C-alpha cells in the first residue's frame, strides 16, 4: 500500500509513476482505500467502476502529464462510454456509448477515471443535497453543505480521495464548493474548454467545465491538456502566450486589483467573510499589489432576475427534451424545484428571454469597463461560510406549492409577484458573487485562503479579463507560495 498517497498532488503522483517509484495500480488501490475510509460518511462518490479502472491500467494508460493518477467525474455533463449518467436525478439513467470531448481529453492526459461524484439534480442548485442520492457532507464539518453543484467532487478532493476532480460551473458550481470545501477551483473563460459533442455552449454560454484541485499547478496543467477549440463550438478563443503551467512558475507583475465588497444580490456579508476579505487585501498589498475599493456599475435589482429568466428558459427546454427522449416517467420523477423552474421557463416569452440576455450584455459591459483599468477584481466567493444541510433547499411547504403549480402557466405571474424571489432567495443570496462570472464568461477562481473561527473554509474570488487565465494562475501560485492555502 502506498501510504504517502495523500501527501502528493496530481503532478507529484504522476512524477513518481514516471520514475518507477510507484505503479498506477498502487495509486488506484490507495484511492480506493481512502474512498472506503471516508466516503460512507461523506457520500461524495455515488458510482464506482474500479474493476474497469484496473483494466484500463492493464490495457495501457496514455502517456501524459498525469499518467496513472486516479480521477473522478462529476455525474452531470461528462459522458463516459459505458457508465451511467444520472445527473443527480431519480428519473435519469442514461448510459452513453461515447466519451464527451472533455472526457476524451482527460483520458489523453493519462488520468485513470474510476468513479463519479454526487451532484444536485441537473446541477440546478448551489448545494449538493439531491433526493436521488442524498446529501454530500462537508469534510470539514459533517452535516454541513459542500456547496454545489460540484459538491461531490470538491469533497472528494478535500477529503484526499483524489488530488483532482472534474467539475462544472453554471452559476458558481466550481468556485462555490471550492470555497466551502477549502480547495482551489478555477472557472475558465467562456469557450476555453469543450462542451461537445452534445452542445457547443450551455445556458447561453454561462456553463464552463474544469477541475477542482488542492494545488494551483494541477489546475493549470490540466487546463493545458483540456483547453482548445473543438469542431462545432461557437467560440475559438485566444491561446495563452505560453503554457498555463508556466504561468504558475513566475510571480505576476505588480497588479492593480479592484476590491468589491457589495453583493450583487441583496444580502448581508458574514462578518468573518468580510474580515477575510480585508485581510486578503492587506496580504496582496504586502506582496506589492495595489488594491483599490470600487464596485462594478451593475443594477442588482435586474441582476438576479435576468440570470434567473435565462436559466429557467434553458431548464424548460432541457426538461422538454428529456421528456421527448426518455418519456414522461423520467421527467415525472424530477424534483419539485426542477419542475417549477421549467414551468417558469415555459411561461416566459421569447421576448422575455432576449430582454434578459440584453441585461447580460449590460453586465458584460460594466465588467469590461472595470477591467480596463484593473487587472483583476477581488471579492468573496460566497457571502458566508458553509451552512448546515436543509437551509438551502426549498421547504416541504414550498415544494408542495411548486407541485401544485408546476402544471399551470403562471410562471411570469409568480415572478412578477415577488414569490419566486422569496422562495429562491436562500440560493440566490449565496450566489451573489459567483453568478457574475457566468453571465460575463470571464475567468474566475476561488482561492482557499482563510477559515472561520469554527474551522470552516472561506474562499476568496478573483475575476480576470477574458482569456487571461495566466494572470489568475500566476497570482494564485504566488499566494500559495507566500501565504499558503487553508486546505
Automatic annotation (TrEMBL):
The keyword Hydrolase applies. The keyword ATP-binding does not apply. Residues 26-472 form the Amidase domain. GO terms for molecular function: 6-aminohexanoate-cyclic-dimer hydrolase activity. Belongs to the amidase family. This is 6-aminohexanoate-cyclic-dimer hydrolase. Its EC number is 3.5.2.12. Keywords: Hydrolase. Pfam families: Amidase (PF01425).
